[in-house]
Specification:
single chain, 160 residues, 4 helices, 6 strands
């Protein structure tokens, strides 16, 4: 007994055409950016400099691991401990994740943990964590309000 086997395309033709068009548009836009016809996405530091946006507050911070797994956040200018991050709650997990990435960057570049990081609150509301030792900067607002607040709590000003 033989069964009929169909080789009919089950994906509607308009869906295939739209998918192909999406791929073509993506490739075209990528090419236009690469050859310089379209500008690349704005770099926050460059845009702030162009607009003359200044820093409202800068804190120099170190993040040190303790034997019990906690992380101590310290302001190096005042030598004040700002927080002890014990668990993953209240943004501690995000802070630890960001700092693991920054520490990895330092190891790759042969830089030790002694130099502090710069946490900067800008006049336009942006919040940046920068590593002067490697030049790497992270715009913390791009991770959402809750994750931004995990770092903003280390600032003195209440406008964080």
């Amino acid at each position: 007994m033989s069964h009929a086997h169909s080789h009919e395309n089950t994906v509607p033709r308009p869906a295939l055409v739209l998918a192909g068009a999406l791929v073509a548009i993506t490739l075209a836009l990528t090419t236009l950016v690469r050859v310089g016809v379209l500008d690349r996405e704005a770099v926050p530091a460059v845009e702030r400099a162009k607009a003359g946006v200044g820093a409202v507050e800068v804190r120099h911070l170190t993040f040190a691991d303790r034997a019990d797994g906690a992380v101590v956040v310290r302001d190096t200018d005042s030598d004040q401990a700002l927080a002890v991050l014990v668990g993953e709650n209240d943004g501690g997990g995000f802070v630890r994740g960001v700092m693991r990435g920054m520490a990895r960057e330092r190891r790759v570049n042969g830089v030790g943990p002694a130099r502090p990081f710069e946490l900067t609150q800008w006049a336009n509301g942006a919040l940046t964590l920068r590593d002067p030792a490697t030049g790497r900067a992270i715009e913390l607002g791009s991770f959402g309000a809750t994750n931004r607040a995990a770092f903003a709590r280390f600032l003195k000003g209440s406008a964080a």
